[in-house]
Amino acid sequence: MLYRQLGRTPWKVSEISFGAWAIGGAWGDVSDAESLAALNAAVDSGVNLIDTADVYGMGRSERLIAQLKRERKEEIVVATKAGRRLPTQTVEGYSPANLTGWIEDSLKNLSTDCLDLLQLHCPPTDAYYHPEIFGTLDSLVQTGKIRYYGVSVERVEEGLKALDYPNVQSVQIIFNCFRQRPADLFFEQAKKHGVGILARVPLASGLLTGKLTRSSQFAADDHRNFNRRGEAFDVGETFSGVDYETGLAAVDEMRRLLPPAFTVTQFALRWILMFDAVTAAIPGGKRPAQVSENCAASDLPALPAETMEAVRRIYDQKFRPAVHHHW
Ligand SMILES: NC(=O)c1ccc[n+]([C@@H]2O[C@H](COP(=O)([O-])OP(=O)(O)OC[C@H]3O[C@@H](n4cnc5c(N)ncnc54)[C@H](OP(=O)(O)O)[C@@H]3O)[C@@H](O)[C@H]2O)c1
After folding, report:
1. For residue 309, how far is its CA from the centre of ligand 1 (angstroms)?
2. Rounded Cα–Cα distance for residues 308 and 38 (Å)
3. Percentage helix, strand, coil, to 5, in the chain?
């Protein structure tokens, strides 16, 4: 496992880290025992950053991470998020009282007195034009409730605007073979500002593992069953917001590009790591074997330039017209 600098924090974090949404809920049935085994497999593979949120299973994901931290001696940086407990997303909802309350709950769930990295959880675009929200985060740093903060964004524009706030350490954004827009301008700007990037939904909710087919079925409580077009929450979080059949066809083309010894999953993750602006990819994982396969992507050789160009061509032909301008 290789490590990269996270913003201007003191932390060098694993370039393959762990996304802890699925172990909280909304991805079908998961057992806490298996989730803990997956978390332990991540630490065994060198993962030292875990991304979670207060809403992932309403504290379940955070509590599992607290349990992991009790069991392991390694230093583990936990990046959690706040904001999605609002019934509707409004700027007013990101008030000092609400932010303080959500953070107090995360502190309890994570059994700690200071959060390592708190991310605003996809607030509305207007929030980025309200400096007082970032002022509240500064106050929470001063009172010792959070050590550092960052944002998780839906749109590239929001990521760019977030760079104006000098204490933002990280921007979490969708970035994968199907969603390449951040590489255009945003990465260069984030690097200039010394801001870390967490690449979320790196496997397009499983499409980029190559295991899904036209007839794949998902459990009733799995968001891949009810949020394909963003009906329940934002467009883009399920299958990266791309057309499912187009995604399958693109994966079939990508199979032809795999270097020897790469799985489709590892190819998708190694592709992300080719961008030095990215601090870490945060694939979700529910089972130890998935996590070990994902982490091994860090040890695989760089992809040749012609392979990178071929992935760019697939994007240009299959996805750019539908998704590039949307965010
Ligand atoms: N708004 C936000 O801030 C936001 C939104 C979305 C995600 N995130 C963060 O980003 C993380 C990653 O995104 P994501 O979990 O949505 O999607 P993802 O990482 O693209 O896909 C994860 C899913 O793919 C499957 N998978 C993972 N590794 C695999 C492997 N090696 N082989 C086969 N299947 C594998 C697993 O599901 P199955 O086994 O069930 O197929 C897993 O839950 C989340 O966990 C969360 O921390 C944040």
Report:
1. 25
2. 30
3. 45, 15, 40
Q: Which sign, positive or negative, has the C-alpha torsion 238, 241, 247, 248? A: positive
pLDDT tens digits, one per residue of 120-172: 999 999 999 999 999 999 999 999 999 999 999 999 999 999 999 999 999 99
Nearest protein CA to atom 27 of ligand 1, as residue? 285
Closest C-alpha residue for ligand 1 atom 8: 200
Contact 269, 203 (CB under 8 A): yes
Q: Rounded to whole angstroms, how far apart are CA atoms 51 and 81?
A: 8
Whether the CB-CB separation of 58 and 23 falls below 8 Å is answered with no
Helices (H), 22-95: 32-44, 60-71
Most distant pair of Cα atoms in the chain: their distance: 54
pTM of the model: 0.98
Torsion angle of C-alpha atoms 246, 248, 251, 255, degrees rounded to 10: -130
